[in-house]
Amino acid sequence: MQKIIISGCCGHMGRVVADICASDPDTDVAAGIDLLPQPMEGFPVFSTPAACPVEADAVIDFSHPAALGPLLDFCVERKLPVVLATTGYSEEQLGQIRGAAGSIPIFRSANMSLGINVLMDLAARASALLGGDFDVEIEERHHRRKLDAPSGTALMLADAAASALPYEPEYVYDRHSVRKPRERREIGIASLRGGTIVGDHTVVFAGRDEVIEITHRAASREVFAAGAVKAAKFLTGVNEPGLYDMSHLIAGKEDI
How many CB atoms lie within 10 A of CB 233? Predict the structure, then answer.
């Protein structure tokens, strides 16, 4: 039985993670951490990582970028592997993550969905075949409550497409203030916010008289929470500190 601490346990995603762990015979929620703690069924909730005395095998974080510092300190001190599923980190915070990964295993992904990671692979392959003659654009749609734009997943997809292009692309997030034709080296990234959209991402390859679109749509948040739980299980089998992502998890599954 793997014991999990959920950071951000009282939020939307934290509650879904708790539900998945409750239905999984191999996992148990040992404790929760939330800046605005609320009573949760089956486990204690603490307002800060430092206040949590509970023993566990791994941490899953679906909270807020502002919570990163104390959480990393807690995990490093306790030698706890951590799954960082939060998005919107600054460059300074990404440096903190890399530093902590020298001491503990850290699994970080802007999107925990297996399907999105397949889409990234398809985007890279399509860029290798089409990128010299086709314009690359990315559109992402999320619910009205999402804080960061573009989404971390959209940037992951842009990076995947850019990795196979025959030129160094420029990411363009806003064209309203510039009245000029699209530059060949651009990758446009457009964000839409509204309603309860869980997460839609489309990579567009627009060529002369033809367009190819590759789309992933998440029907519920459960797909991300389930991926985070799988990542936590993966980390409990990792013996070396370092940065891990979905590609390592998928490779590990292939090796079994």
Answer: 18
